């Protein structure tokens, strides 16, 4: 541990049923420094933050704050100790004002009127924003603010409790370039004020612009802590990766067919800008990038859930511009949402109803009523193809294991025809056995001529299952990786710095 550290984490281990999220992790923070915390998804960063923020309790190890044992039982304990964690998902009340959010739960009351002293909280909020060098109306409803302004409100909340250590989890994931620049200036001001900042980001350009030191986590373990001046982006990428893809994932060699999907100069929503790509029959095309790079929007555009502003799409060589998902499904396109719990399965409905909801027109009778016999035929087909472990078609999907729920949702995506599949995080939250089965299914589908566009934040999966990879950053495709250039190091480098490590550089090392 570093001498005179403000925060010290010593041999910290956190275990959940069947999973060791952190394994004897060491970490420390000095007074008045920006300490970056980096690693791939699943490296343990969020778990460590939640221990510091009083959300999770460690299984073993010790945390010390200013030399004293620190073991918060709830988030309020962390705030009282001067550790303020700003999570990627904001904890704000959109209908309350900025000042009400900043002082939520700690509002000063007037003994005479028995009401909140609004003039005081408005004044104090303005003073906090002045420390950050920005101006935000303390009386404005938070719901009316931009994402970057809401981020500043979260920082002001941290300052209002006299936060000695401010933790920022992917603070720029949803910000524009100008908003990112403003936030980086704010972080520098916090350091000048003597605050310590733990900065978690996949964006290495920000890490190198801000951090004094950087710690790399991988698979729940501490890999290295080093001065930012003593490393470089390529070296940091290698520390973050360190894994053999081929030992875990397998992709059968499948002959490429005709082009199924082509995008040319597509712009859509707030994210996608000038996106061009192709997907051919019999191949899996991977989409990589950090969170917030535009991956969900890309799938939504193709599926008709997000309108195109400009550019063109073709499907099997014909113009394609779906007005809604029904148009896409009618053309044989299936869609798997990245979050099966929030927007995927319907937990209170049966397996057969979850399977057939994407093809209701095909299983209706002449009176437009659902035909149970047709539903059961669909269930029997996909139960056999996907090896779903269930008691029968009427079992509620919510009672299945995570892996079997995911198989049912894959069946739903296949039901419209399986010509083109848009798979978002196809194995998120499933065990290794179910993951292998889903990968075998993807191989079988492409062997039959299906085209697959797969989004995955799991780099070994992305590279182990796909044939080519497009890397998104800031809503733009910054790289197309194939052959020997299709490596974890290149995906991370392109997503975080906009440039790749070419094969000749790798072979020279």
From TrEMBL:
One of its GO terms (cellular component) is plasma membrane. It is a peripheral membrane protein. Its main location: membrane. This is Ribose import ATP-binding protein RbsA 1. Residues 7-244, 249-499 form the ABC transporter domain. InterPro entries: AAA+_ATPase, ABC_carbohydrate_import_ATPase, ABC_transporter-like_ATP-bd, ABC_transporter-like_CS, P-loop_NTPase. One of its GO terms (molecular function) is ATP hydrolysis activity. Keywords: ATP-binding, Cell membrane, Membrane, Nucleotide-binding, Repeat, Sugar transport, Translocase, Transport. It comes from the Bacteria. Gene3D superfamilies: P-loop containing nucleotide triphosphate hydrolases (3.40.50.300).
